[in-house]
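Message: Study each token:
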Amino acid sequence: MADTYKVSISCYVLDKKIPPDSDMWPKFNASFLNCDITDLDLLTEIYDGRSITTWHKNNWRASDNFELGQHIGLDFDTGDKFSTMDYLKKDKFVDKYASFLYTTISHTAEKPRARVIFLLDKPIMQAKNYSTAATALLWLFGTADKQCKDAVRFFYGSKNCQAEYIGEVLPLETLKETIAKYSESEKQTKKPSKQYIEPASQKEVSEALRTIPPWGISYEEWVMVLMGIHREFGDAGYQLAESWASGKPGEVERKWKSFKDNGNTAGAVTIGTVFGIAKNFGWKKSSL
């Protein structure tokens, strides 16, 4: 018997977005039904044009009525290759944990837009925790729409969309690890380390990287190393990052280009993060 997931689905079939001033909004917000549904059936509902959101009570989509969430969606709206399904499905995290991808209701061939849906093995029971989990995934994906993080956010269906079924599930324990890494980066942003106040040289960073096995750390830590190098050196550090990362063809370039100037859309990771990871593998600054 196929696994089911707790997702709330609208009874409305839409082929375009509802205008902001439409009188349809009250009926739409009351149109969602809490369902236990398989991943393929959920994708079919989206393909048919039905919107989805988290489970809520009182027949009204509102933060105070949040009950639980067992999916997280990330929107990619840059309108270039970074928002194509071909690009996104090559991401290591997407390939390992996403359930499916599809082109959104606003997608065009000239301005591609796509959404990645992660289904969780266990639901998140608190609205605050759900929002934190969504924010942590946004931190991991620099080009995702950072607005997609409130607990009862809905995602439009996409009638006759292009879809890519992956069939994986994101374990809640893995998501918690990502949240922990995100929280760590937030602390570093608010309380910069005084140990490495001088600008680092590429030689110094290269020596530190030699102690870090790219396949011996978590994916989140792997991304954080790339973020730290990007933060410190900008594009001048790309070759250093690529020579260390041992990624699949194009993987490092894709992740590198998703970073913003401050490391990512939420929580800057500095070169101190790289040094901290290196210290866990025996690197010492005095050895340089």
